[in-house]
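Dear Dr. H.,

I hope your travels went smoothly. While you were away I took the liberty of generating a structure for the chain from your last submission, since the lab meeting agenda had it listed for discussion. I wanted you to have the full record in hand beforehand rather than looking at slides cold. The sequence, exactly as received, is reproduced here:
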Amino acid sequence: MTATPSSNHAAVYRLREVAAEYARSVPTDAFHWEAWHALSEAGLWRLPVPREEGGAGLTWTAFTEAFEAIVATLRSIGFAMVVANQATLIRALLKHGSAAQRASFLPRLLAGTPAATAISEKHTGTEIRALQTALSVHEEGFLLDGHKYNISQAPTAGIILVAAQLIDGERATTALVLLDGGRPGVTRSAPRDTLGVRDLPIGDLAFEGVPIAANQLLGPPAQGLHRLMDIASMNRAYFGLLCANVVMPFLDDAMRYASERKALDAAIDTHQHVQRRLVDIRIGAESTRWTARAALDQLVAGDPAALANCSVAKLVGARELARSALDLLALHGSDGYRRGPLASFVADALAMTSAGGTEEMHRRNIFAQMQRQAAATLEKPAVPAAPSAHPLISRSPEPA
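The corresponding predicted structure, in token form, is as follows:
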């Protein structure tokens, strides 16, 4: 059965209504588990999953539209990050997982069991080629040892995808490991105290001699790096889309504030510098939104350009979100600096400059993709010009 625009619209509308119901009861400095469970029960995770895998049989476009609606309604960057991470792992299982892995993990993910993708490490960040977490060959399979740092949902995740280096003699390749969060040998830290996104459980994961069977690897290690890049790219694009949508309700608040706040008997939105700030926020959000959407479309279609453009979406989104948050703070003056929703939003927005990779990491990735494209262009053989049908254009060079 092919999803129709009307079925997509109905699903998105229902999920927006669920988010709106729980937006009125957002907890302070704690993850909104009630909203998470309600959205899970309403079928959020099933949207892009084929019916034969237990899903609703719709599309990633439907999920993307629902994601945007939820993010703009709940106003929480931390919550949106977890939604993006969960969707990324679901797609990873659908695209790269074995039938046995999908049967084991997919029903739990669709029911709302929170997942964590463990890439970042303390001294190397999200630099994939510098991973220190190691998977060593053992007589019965492998052993996993290492430490992951600043991982979203690490303290509570029921399912973990771990990126590690598989050491086999002198050869090292990237391996992806799927495991239960409660496995012996897996240690979680308590949630870390952070400047922003205080409603997001962020912590560390330690692995000490965790036995790993071959069927727990997400595909063969020879394809591990390529698969990890694909998984990380989707996460980056959704983080960009997060940045575009989470600012919109705060922009609506600022529009009302600027129309009501008076200075010298005139509303401050009559001043060009105020209008400029508000318009710049809208321009930043829209440019990020369509960049992220285009990158997601490329990724789902298998276009190699997506690897760079998903980083572009995240980089642009984080930069515009930070700039917009500071503009909103300036527009509200001392009112915005008081502890409250806007002040918390400003601190949360700054977290996006490093969440999912720093600006420097994304620039390296974009440049690497540019180098590959340039090399591929140079390697292509010259294509002979097509014969001209026009009588005044010569089909071959004139004799000297």
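Two observations you may find useful: Residues 272-301 form the longest helix (30 residues). Confidence is low (pLDDT under 50) at residues 385-400.

With kind regards,
E. W.
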